[in-house]
Design goal:
alpha+beta, 8-stranded mixed beta sheet, Rossmann fold
Length: about 650
């Protein structure tokens, strides 16, 4: 489905039931499952229907890299249409009935190029063959077989200009020269450029025009703490949009907003507990269909009886213990591809024919994994030391009593993101090895309203870290965690929280694993990608401004300056091409610790970026992780198993 797409800041990335008493003890623990089985590529995944519904495309391994394959629905003959060998394809879609488009970077540098190829695997072309340039898809122009609208920062690295590109010839037309302060663009249902988003780093203005022959004019300016985010135009294609908004409210709602009159005309839906995350619509029938929001699990508020009936049919046929997503449909919207997944399986794809009401299974993403051997991901909550309710998830290993367990605390990245319920191969690997895993949505995690988010500002390593610490103490008080056998592991901001944890609470953790994490708030601010530059003032308000008195706070909460406090053993993993958390963040941390005469285990992958995408690198990392945990918690872990 087409939405108004605009550039946003890329993030890095109470009471509770007595869980241990309710946990049913299995007859025996499951067999030990290999790292390869958890982290190898699926045999088939990411299915997409051609617009006419005749062909189906999917990603499948070719020489250990995920490439695009195509087959006709009524044929078993498969054609591999891409030949990527260095790195998995990052994403793809049907450009029209005969061509597919995909994006790929080089070695994790996130300078994505746009490629197009025929469904027969012929006439492949790099449409954006520019060094050091990143492409963004503004509008794939579903009704236009020959063109799409893209954004490129080929003129100025910090600035993206919108182009209309012919996907056969590669010819590009500049639609509007970005004056330097526009960070995003929006199109209407006809693919016309009607919206622009301007920022000075902390304030954002929405600009609007009736048609492409007019100049943009300002609609509204808000600071970054307020959200008015148009999702799509109303179906008369005029000046009313459906938008996400937290204006004059704490929780983000779906509203209808008049861009000409600069006013909200209708609140479509709001939830009292959490933010709404998005709204979908039928391109063919021109109606909004449902609104998504996530409490402990995904919820939908239906606006359309037909779509409500489809999801009810899926639950009736496949069970209500799954979460369902429509990943693709044909233009007539009578054929749908459905993803179904839960906390114990990587998921399955189904083909649903609305006219015949038939549901047929297409593929299971990890058929080699037995869901009976996977652990349950239970929603939990606890109260922070200053009275906030912190929501999260606890995964307990199967076949052992939930008492005095070795624990891996796993704070999420972002930090302005959140953990959600569903299958997580990292968590399942650790549970399979006998560890309980605690994930928490500490203050600043998204989805819980404006006030909860703002409480994280300039709190890296402080109250944000206290929320993590309070979760660990909650587990200890519940007698689930053995206080002598607790490790902390996270990636990106979670890597920062890992380092901050072993410095701020050095006696709490026995071991720590930092995966592409920030170690120095000063150098992190200096090395952010160029296309984040417009948001630097916002980062100064959210993290800290090194040119003010914040510098004292930033030094106090930069782990690299306090390595003498570390008692836990540490494993660091980093991608050499990471544009968000550069290699120096890990290098300087390792050097500072080694100056204290302490050895650090350090894994550096030369062909990776912000997280390891290549299959063989995932194998190396997770094998090293489990060996590291066994080595540093081995004696007591072995006692549990015996």
């Amino acid at each position: 489905m087409k939405k108004l797409i605009f550039i946003s800041l890329l993030v890095l990335f109470a009471s509770c039931k007595d869980t241990k008493n309710e946990k049913e003890i299995a007859i025996s623990p499951p067999p030990t499952i290999s790292v390869e089985d958890f982290f190898k590529n699926s045999e088939m995944r990411t299915f997409r229907l051609s617009p006419n519904g005749t062909y189906i495309a999917y990603l499948a391994p070719y020489k250990n890299r995920m490439n695009i394959h195509v087959r006709k629905f009524d044929s078993d003959s498969v054609v591999r249409v891409s030949n990527v060998l260095d790195r998995d394809i990052a994403g793809y879609f049907w450009a029209n009935n005969n061509q597919l488009a995909y994006i790929k970077d080089s070695g994790g540098d996130e300078n994505f190029h746009l490629y197009v190829v025929d469904k027969e695997g012929l006439n492949e072309k790099d449409l954006t063959p520019f060094d050091g340039v990143r492409v963004q898809i503004i509008d794939d122009l579903e009704s236009n077989d020959d063109e799409m609208i893209i954004g490129l920062n080929n003129r100025i690295p910090q600035v993206f200009d919108p182009y209309r590109i012919n996907i056969t010839s590669g010819e590009m037309e500049l639609l509007y020269e970005n004056p330097g302060n526009i960070t995003g663009w929006g199109t209407d249902h006809y693919g016309k450029l009607r919206l622009a988003y301007v920022t000075n780093g902390v304030d954002t203005s929405i600009l609007y025009r009736d048609n492409e022959s007019e100049d943009f004019s300002e609609v509204i300016t808000t600071d970054f703490k307020q959200t008015l985010s148009p999702q799509f135009f109303d179906f008369d294609n005029g000046h009313i949009v459906y938008a996400l908004s937290n204006l004059n409210r704490d929780k983000t709602a779906i509203v209808k907003y008049d861009l000409k009159e600069n006013k909200e005309v209708e609140e479509v839906f709001v939830n009292d507990e959490v933010d709404v995350s998005g709204i979908s619509y039928s391109q063919k029938r021109k109606v909004p269909t449902f609104i998504n929001y996530t409490t402990t699990k995904l919820n939908r508020h239906f606006l359309d009886d037909e779509m409500n009936t489809i999801f009810a049919r899926l639950e009736d046929e496949l069970g209500d213990d799954n979460e369902y997503y429509i990943t693709s449909s044909n233009k007539e919207e009578d054929i749908f591809l459905i993803y179904a997944g839960n906390d114990k399986t990587r998921g399955e794809y189904y083909y649903y024919n609305k006219d015949t009401d038939d549901i047929n299974k297409l593929a299971e993403l990890s058929p080699w994994l037995n869901s009976d051997h996977m652990a349950t991901m239970e929603p939990i909550s606890y109260t922070s030391r200053d009275g906030l309710t912190i929501h999260g998830y606890l995964t307990l290993p199967i076949g052992v009593e939930a008492k005095n367990l070795p624990v891996v605390v796993n704070p999420h990245g972002g930090p302005w993101a959140r953990d959600t319920w569903g299958y997580n191969p990292e968590v399942q690997l650790l549970a399979n090895r006998g560890y309980a895993v605690l994930q928490m949505n500490f203050r600043g995690s998204t989805g819980y309203g404006k006030e909860f988010w703002e409480k994280s500002f300039k709190q890296w390593g402080q109250t944000m870290q206290d929320d993590i610490t309070d979760g660990v103490h909650w587990l200890i008080d519940q007698e689930i965690a053995d206080p002598d056998r607790i490790a902390i592991y996270g990636g990106s901001y979670g890597g920062y929280a890992t380092l901050a944890g072993i410095i701020k609470t050095p006696d709490l953790y026995a071991a720590a694993i930092d995966y592409v994490g920030v170690s120095n708030l000063f150098t992190f601010m200096e090395t952010i990608p160029p296309y984040w530059e417009p948001y630097k003032k916002m980062l100064y308000e959210m993290v800290g401004d090194p040119k003010t008195n914040d510098s004292i706070m930033m030094k106090e909460n930069s782990p690299v300056f306090h390595t003498d406090k570390i008692k836990a053993t540490l494993f660091v993993a980093q991608g050499a091409n990471d544009p968000r958390v550069v290699q120096d963040e890990s290098d300087q941390m390792v050097k500072a610790i080694e100056k204290n005469g302490v050895q650090v285990q350090y894994m550096l992958k030369e062909n990776e970026g912000h997280g390891f995408r290549n299959e063989e690198n995932r194998f190396d990392f997770y094998k090293a992780m489990t060996e590291f945990l066994d080595k540093n918690l081995k004696e007591k872990v072995d006692d549990i198993k015996t």
